[in-house]
């Protein structure tokens, strides 16, 4: 676990939020439209067909207004200029990567959220969000198809002396056909996020709905819970201990889900996956508990080596992915080694994305059809 602690997380997160591509010689097309994740009725922030973002903030008495993009503002800042009627306006210096991005506004040194945008939990706080339309966004779009249900559950946790929260996606028809039981994927968020991330930022429920409607996957249940990672400050991951969360997941949440939902409560029909820090958790727990999970997936969350796994017969799938702006060679080479060792291993690299949700949305789209195959 030590090799996947501070070095892994820092490299993955910092490498993903590089500065915008410099496109100073490209004329900006004035076809800006409100972001799809704006507050109802709000005109700003806006995005255009090239991937630029434009912001407008009301701060009549301010001396400085800066929009900081990316997890913790690591992707760079856009300084706004004072306009009329107390508004500050500005456009990013270049096109942003397609997909979802966090951001916040710094007004005279104070950090605030943009009143025009919806908020999403990231950087251990609720941050503003913006969507840059992706050329392949159809797979996570809201469509007129049968929809599953995402419900909040509260499950008892003796180890933490409290009730803990999880979100459970059940497929369309789950509540109609009560004779059917389903495999389960336990899906973990990254550092700074929580159990809301995969459905809010990741749109995993819509991806599932669309793929089920298209006949590309067999229905399964998805369970998302808090990975207990955010008590560790950024940069301090070396001190993170997996045991408390491992207990919550394997001894409390899984038995609760198997008791209260129609699951196929077998190792062969149970998977675990996670993005970034959640990938590190996934790797550690699946290695520690091979009797519980048979399908493993790390999304921008490290790699498995053949020698990491104690019992090859327990593993039905290993899926490794990342963005092309991360470390794709590491993922590809790891899968080559796993295949040579006799594992069913698959790699996927998301083109033109970094350590961000379009990478993980695309990764989930590639992973889902591989899970629980006969």
TrEMBL record:
InterPro entries: AB_hydrolase_fold (IPR029058), Esterase-like (IPR000801), Ig-like_fold (IPR013783), Ig_E-set (IPR014756), Mycobacterial_A85_antigen (IPR050583). The keyword Signal applies. Residues 1-21 form the signal peptide. Keywords: Signal. Pfam families: Esterase. CDD domains: E_set_Esterase_N. GO terms for molecular function: acyltransferase activity, transferring groups other than amino-acyl groups. This is Esterase. It comes from Flavobacterium franklandianum. The lineage of its organism: Bacteria, Pseudomonadati, Bacteroidota, Flavobacteriia, Flavobacteriales.
């Amino acid at each position: 676990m030590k090799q996947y602690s501070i070095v892994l997380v820092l490299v993955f997160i910092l490498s993903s939020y590089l500065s915008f591509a410099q496109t100073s010689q490209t004329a900006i097309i004035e076809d800006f439209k409100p972001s799809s994740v704006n507050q109802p009725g709000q005109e700003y922030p806006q995005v255009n067909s090239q991937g630029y973002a434009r912001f407008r903030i009301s701060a009549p008495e301010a001396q400085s207004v800066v929009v900081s993009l990316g997890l913790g503002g690591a992707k760079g800042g856009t300084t706004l200029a004072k306009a009329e009627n107390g508004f500050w306006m500005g456009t990013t210096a270049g096109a942003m990567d397609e997909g979802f991005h966090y951001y916040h506004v710094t007004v005279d040194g104070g950090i605030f959220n943009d009143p025009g945008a919806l908020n999403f939990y990231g950087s251990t706080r609720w941050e503003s969000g913006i969507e840059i339309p992706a050329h392949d966004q159809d797979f996570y779009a809201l469509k007129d198809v049968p929809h599953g249900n995402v419900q909040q559950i509260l499950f008892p946790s003796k180890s933490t002396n409290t009730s803990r929260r999880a979100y459970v996606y059940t497929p369309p028809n789950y509540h109609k056909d009560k004779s059917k039981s389903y495999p389960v994927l336990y899906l973990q968020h990254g550092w700074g996020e929580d159990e809301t991330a995969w459905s809010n930022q990741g749109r995993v429920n819509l991806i599932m709905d669309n793929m089920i409607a298209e006949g590309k996957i067999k229905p399964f249940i998805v369970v998302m819970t808090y990975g207990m990672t955010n008590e560790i400050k950024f940069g301090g991951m070396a001190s993170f201990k997996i045991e408390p969360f491992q207990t919550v997941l394997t001894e409390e949440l899984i038995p609760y889900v198997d008791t209260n939902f129609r699951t196929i409560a077998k190792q062969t029909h149970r998977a675990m996956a996670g993005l970034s820090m959640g990938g590190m958790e996934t790797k550690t727990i699946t290695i520690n508990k091979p009797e519980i999970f048979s399908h493993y997936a790390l999304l921008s969350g490290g790699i498995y080596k053949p020698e990491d796994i104690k019992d090859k017969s327990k593993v039905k799938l290993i899926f490794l992915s990342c963005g092309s702006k991360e470390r794709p060679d590491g993922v590809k080479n790891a899968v080559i080694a796993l295949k040579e060792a006799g594992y069913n291993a698959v790699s996927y690299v998301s083109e033109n994305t970094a350590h961000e949700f379009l990478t993980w949305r695309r990764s989930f789209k590639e992973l889902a059809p591989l899970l629980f195959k006969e």
